[in-house]
Design goal:
Length: about 375
C-alpha cells in the first residue's frame, strides 16, 4: 500500500515538472505563427490599381505607384539617326507591260497547237489554229466588198471602200493579222492565231479538239528582259525615296551577284495594318536569270534619316498589336498602341507610329503593369 502511494506521488511530481515545458513550447509555436502572419501581411500589396478618366483628353489612365511594383523601370523614347541605306524584302514579278494574251474572239474549236508551256515564241509566229464559221462569214463579206468595189461605177467607189473597210475591221476584231487578211483568196473557217509579242509561254490552256468561246484565254506570253520587284517601305522612309532613284537587288539564288534597277512607281496608298507602302522597282535582267516569284532584297542608297527607338522589354503584345505604357506623371500611365519596324540595335525596337521623342515609357515589368491594367478595367 505504501509503495503504491509513493508511485502515485512520483507521477504527480513529473506532471508538475512537465507543465512549464509544455507551456513554453506552446508560447514558442504561437510566436512563430504570429511572425509568419506578419511577414505575409508585409508581402501582400496594400493598394488596388484604378482607372482615372481624364475629362479634358478623354483618356483612361492607370493609377499606380512605381515603388509599389518591384523592378519597374522607365526609359525615354529616343531619336537616333538612320543609316543612309534603305533595305527591304521584295518579290520578283513580270513587268505587266511585257505580258500578252492570245484570246479567242470566236466560238469554235482548236484544230492545231504549235506551242507548249515554257516554249519561247517570236512575234507573229503561228501558235494555234482555230476552226470557226464566223471566220468564213467575215471573209466572205470582205471578198464580196472587194468585188463590189471593183465593179462599182466611179461615183460609188467611196461607198464600196467603206464596205471593204468595215469588213476588214471585222476580220481584225476577230483576231486576224493584216498579213492574213491580205492573203485571203477564198472564204475559209480556219485561221491561225499568232504571237502578239516575243516571249515565253507562261500559261497554256489550249488542247487540240477543245471547244472555245469568245473571251477564252488560250495562251499567256511573258518576257523577262526587265522584271519588277515589289517591296514594302515604312511610311517614315517614303520621304527618302523618289521615282527614278537607283537601287541594287540581290537574291538567294545568286547571292554573289548584284542586279541594278530604278524605282518606277510608289504606291499612293498606305497599308493601315502595317503602315507600309509598296514600291515597284524595274530591274534589268538581260539573261533571264531572275524568275517571277523569286524573293529578292532591295538596297536603296539614300540620305540619312531619323528613327524613334524604345527598349524591347517596353513592348506588350496582345492579339495582333503592340502596346506601351506612357508615363503622364503623378503615378498615371496611358496604355497606347504603337507600330514597330525592324531595327539592328540589340535590345531596342524602332517605333514608326504612336510615340514622340522625349516621352517616357515603362520598361522593366511592363507585363505586370499590363496585368494591373486588365484588373482595373475588368478586361482579360
Amino acid at each position: 500500500m505504501i509503495r503504491g502511494c509513493k508511485i502515485i506521488a512520483a507521477g504527480c511530481r513529473a506532471i508538475r515538472e512537465a507543465v512549464p515545458v509544455l507551456l513554453a513550447m506552446l508560447i514558442t509555436l504561437a510566436g512563430c505563427d504570429n511572425t509568419s502572419s506578419s511577414r505575409a501581411a508585409i508581402q501582400t500589396p496594400s493598394y488596388v490599381p484604378e482607372i482615372v478618366h481624364q475629362g479634358s483628353t478623354g483618356q483612361d489612365l492607370l493609377r499606380i505607384g512605381g515603388s509599389q511594383i518591384p523592378g519597374m523601370t522607365e526609359a525615354d523614347v529616343r531619336q537616333v539617326e538612320l543609316p543612309g541605306v534603305i533595305e527591304a524584302n521584295g518579290q520578283i514579278a513580270y513587268d505587266e507591260r511585257n505580258v500578252a494574251e492570245i484570246v479567242s474572239r470566236v466560238s469554235g474549236r482548236i484544230e492545231t497547237a504549235r506551242a507548249v508551256l515554257w516554249d519561247y515564241v517570236r512575234v507573229g509566229q503561228p501558235i494555234v489554229r482555230l476552226y470557226s464559221p464566223d471566220f468564213m462569214t467575215a471573209e466572205a463579206e470582205y471578198l464580196g466588198g472587194l468585188r463590189t468595189r471593183d465593179l462599182s461605177p466611179t461615183g460609188q467607189v467611196k461607198v464600196a471602200d467603206a464596205m471593204v473597210a468595215a469588213a476588214r475591221r471585222k476580220l481584225e476584231l476577230l483576231g486576224m493579222s493584216p498579213a492574213d487578211i491580205a492573203a485571203i483568196n477564198t472564204p475559209s473557217p480556219y485561221v491561225w492565231m499568232r504571237a502578239p509579242i516575243s516571249g515565253t509561254v507562261v500559261k497554256n490552256t489550249a488542247s487540240i479538239g477543245g471547244a472555245v468561246n469568245p473571251g477564252d484565254v488560250l495562251y499567256v506570253l511573258g518576257t523577262t528582259g526587265v522584271v519588277w520587284i515589289t517591296a514594302d517601305l515604312y511610311e517614315d522612309q517614303l520621304s527618302r525615296v523618289r521615282v527614278g532613284q537607283q537601287l541594287e537587288a540581290v537574291t538567294t539564288a545568286y547571292p554573289g551577284e548584284v542586279f541594278h534597277g530604278i524605282i518606277a512607281r510608289v504606291s499612293p496608298e498606305i497599308d493601315p495594318a502595317t503602315h507600309t507602302a509598296k514600291i515597284r522597282c524595274e530591274v534589268r535582267n538581260p539573261d533571264g536569270r531572275l524568275k517571277p516569284e523569286m524573293l529578292a532584297r532591295v538596297r536603296i542608297i539614300t540620305a540619312p534619316g531619323a528613327a524613334l527607338i524604345v527598349p524591347q522589354e517596353a513592348l506588350v503584345f496582345e492579339t495582333n498589336a503592340y502596346y506601351v505604357f506612357v508615363d503622364h506623371g503623378n503615378g498615371l500611365f496611358e496604355r497606347r498602341q504603337v507600330q514597330i519596324a525592324a531595327w539592328h540595335e540589340s535590345g531596342m525596337t524602332r517605333v514608326t507610329a504612336g510615340l514622340s521623342v522625349g516621352e517616357k515609357v515603362v520598361a522593366g515589368e511592363s507585363l505586370q503593369v499590363n496585368e494591373l491594367w486588365h484588373q482595373a478595367t475588368g478586361t482579360s
